[in-house]
Inverse folding.
């Protein structure tokens, strides 16, 4: 078992806060860009409004 401090982390593309690796992201960690579903939706709605 790894310690939480040993897990990889990234910066969220929307809120700019750091987030750490989760088991559900194991297979596609490289593709994860957002810390939560809320940030993912905020990014999509922001790009739709700019059109």
């Amino acid at each position: 078992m790894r310690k939480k401090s040993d897990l990889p982390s990234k910066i969220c593309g929307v809120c700019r806060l750091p987030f750490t690796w989760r088991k559900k992201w194991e297979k596609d960690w490289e593709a994860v860009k957002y810390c939560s579903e809320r940030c993912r939706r905020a990014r999509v709605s922001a790009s739709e409004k700019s059109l």
Notes: The two ends are 46 Å apart (CA to CA).
